[in-house]
Structure formats: structure tokens, C-alpha cells
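User: Fold this; C-alpha cells only.

Assistant: Input:
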Amino acid sequence: MHRYIAAIDQGTTSTRCMIFDHGGLVVSAAQKEHAQIYPQPGWVEHDPVEIWKRTREVCHEAVSKAGAQADDLSAIGITNQRETTLMWDRHSGKPFYNAIVWQDTRTKTICDQLASDGGIDRFRSKVGLPLATYFSAPKIKWILENVAGVKAAAQRGDALFGTVDTWILWWLTGGLQGGSHVTDVTNASRTMLMNLHTLDWDEEILNIFDIPISILPQIVPSSDPQTWGLSDPQGPFGSAIPVCGDLGDQQAALVGQTCFSPGEAKNTYGTGCFMLLNTGENLVQSKSGLLTTVAYKIGKQSATYALEGSIAITGALVQWLRDNLGLIQKSADVEDLARTVEDNGGIYFVPAFSGLFAPYWRSDARGVIVGMTRYVNRGHFARAALEASAYQTREVTDAMEIDSGVKLQALKVDGGMVFNDLLMQFQADILNVPVIRPKISETTALGAAYAAGLATNFWSNLDDLRANWQIDKTWKPAMEAGDRQKLYSGWLKAIERSFGWVE
């Protein structure tokens, strides 16, 4: 009798495996961090071999913590940090280079060159994305052009490209012994190489980037009963289990929050902040600097699309206060420090450490702290760092309302920062809508579990999943309209000060 679903959640700073029951409750979990590699300013890398090692360890640990036997697991789902790019040799399984992480900005020159003919939006009508260092295509081009031997290996048919889901799926389903080389539509929609209309690789764009189609994985639905293979019995799960769910992390959170109707939105507060609005089968092209992306595709059903506002740095700013400035001992301390003051003391902190994402797309921006006086202390720094997440979310919400014509009624939230009461209250105040945290805050892993479980009929339909969603806490706006306006216009002034820093 299948009692559980396993979800692998491979994130920017750590990997975890979670085992869920039919009620969507966590039975067990295991998590391990991996190294962040910064070879030079603006470069961010991960070691793919370390990521696969951590994945094996946490899967093994979560299964044993749950006391699960092989036949207890119905299916395995995967969710992952998106856009992070790696290439490896199909015969040895060895990476040609470290994974280039989504935050990495080394491809700015490539993007600028491509934008010189047709502008930043030259591919937007096909792929829903602006030309930016964030996406996979310029990273693939960089590896092909800068890492010795890769181009030749690609031409011989020996090189494989994947985002992290593809890398893990390949190893999980056998690796060198015939592992599946696949990615799902949500991850493919972040490469800048998939046509949103056809849900297939776009040959014209591949030619412009000079990327051979032979290195690319097959694009499959996010939830697919025609499984992409079974887990290798010699692998971390110790038996052959269908691997049949795959979603990029933000789309997984949308599914985990059961935002299945057009107009429903969620915001995930992680390393960065990512807000997605379900637009149904309607592919909405943004006029306001948002991304058009695939939300999910279940089996043979039509794809569901979303508008996304991506913010590069939110939780990472708190880590920066901890690791680079030593203002706090652990991330959770930021709330206590922020509560030592009544307000931000007149300062704003724009964390454009690797440029600005939505709605600006300015890779020339860098972080600024403005409004400093002798009065300002550590507490104000902590407070301004938290407020930055809420202001950036407000900018994205305003853009979504313009693009979609839908007025946000409430915001469903998840991710590590949603246990910060001060931030969540300020978020409700600055948006002027209620902010709602669900009982299960691990919505990213849950979404991957849902995708896998739908494919094996562990859950029979979307209503089955909606029945699992329950509210844990709601924050209602309590700020005067005049105060809200004054604070927000100060933020908009601060953002402008960050522009044009990098020549």
C-alpha cells in the first residue's frame, strides 16, 4: 500500500528531501547545505557533484526517518532552483564546469551584444523573458565559448545541458546506465530557448545563441504518468519508484499553495522573492517588466501560464547582515534587532547586489543605503533590510495589476521569512491587502509532491489538493494611507539612486 510521496527540493543554498502523506503533511525531512562558490565579483557557482551527493544523503535520511519501506512510496517529485546551468559528459557523468547559478552576472556582455540588435525584449514575444543574465541561454553560450573542450564535445554529441532538475533526474533514473535526459515545461520556460506557444525548443533562437539542439533535454509535462523512468534501485531510495513530477521551485510553490484558478497569486520569500499570478490558459505578455512563464502542465492537459515578478535579493540580504557585517548571529535574530526601533529611521536599503530584476531589469544597478544620519543605528539597518522585501513585493504587485487587470484581494505567502511577524505585518500594511500563511509553509516541496502524486493517482484531482490547504495565520493592513504613500515614495526615490552604478 502506497502511503507516501517523496519530494526532492534542490534549492540555491541547500538540498532537502521531504516525505508527505495524503493530507499533505510532512512525515519526515532531511536537509543539507552546499558550498557557495564566488570566483570573482558577480560570479556565483555550485559544484554539481556536491549537489548530487547531498541529494543522495538527504533522500536516504528522510526515508529512514519516516521508517518507510520501498513499497510505501507512490512516486518521487523534484523541484529545483531555476535557471542555474550545468553541462556534463554523457559517457563519464563528469561536469565540464561548475554550475553557473541564476544570480551570476558574468554573461552581461553576451546579453548586451544580443540586445544591440532588437533590444532587451527581442525574444520576449516567443519566450516571455527579457534578455538578462538571469536565464540559462546566455550561461550555456558562456560555457560553450569559455570552457576548453566543451564546444567540441557538444559537436560530437557527448555533452549534455541541464538545469538542476535535469541533472538530478538523470542520475536518479540511472545516470550512465541510461538515465532520462528530460526537463519539464516550467524549467524549460526559464532557459530563454523554449517557445511558450509550441512548448518546444525554438530553432531560430538556438541558432542566434549558437547552441546545438543535441545537448538539450526532452521537454515533458510537470506531472506525467508516462514516467520518465524509475529511480535506480542502487540509488538513494533503494528501489524502483516512478519519478513523475518536476517543477521549477516557484511554480512548485504556486501548485503547493493550490493557486489553480486564474487570478490566484502567491509570494515566496527565499534567497530572492518570487511572486506568481495564475493567468490560466491565457498567455499574458507583460508591459510592466514582469516575466511570462509556464505555471504547470498536468499530463495531456493544456499548459497553465503565469505572470511572475522575480526579485533577486530578499532573504539573502538578511544572510548578508549576518555573514558579511556580523550584525546578527543567526538569521532569525533580525526580527528582534529590528524591533529595537520604531521605524526605519529614514533609511532605505536597496539590495541590488547583482543588479535589479523585476520590474526594472537593470544589470547596471548596485546596492545602496540612502538617508543616513548620525541618528541611525543597527536596529534601523535590520528594519530597512526587512522592509526592502516588502517594498520590492509592492512594486511587483502594482505591475501585476496593470498587466492582468486583476486587483489582488489577498496574498498567499510561503518560504523561510514568513515566520517573521514584523515583515509580514509590514507587507500587509504596504500592500493594503491581507497576507495569508498556510498551515504547511513548505509549499515548494509540497508542490513537487503534488505533481508526482497526481501522476500516480495518489491524489485524484486538483480538488483533492485544495482540500488539504488550510490557513495558519492572517495579517491585516493597519497603516494609515498617508503613511503608506510617504514610505513607498521614499522607496521609489531610493531605487533610482541604485541605477547606472556599473559602467
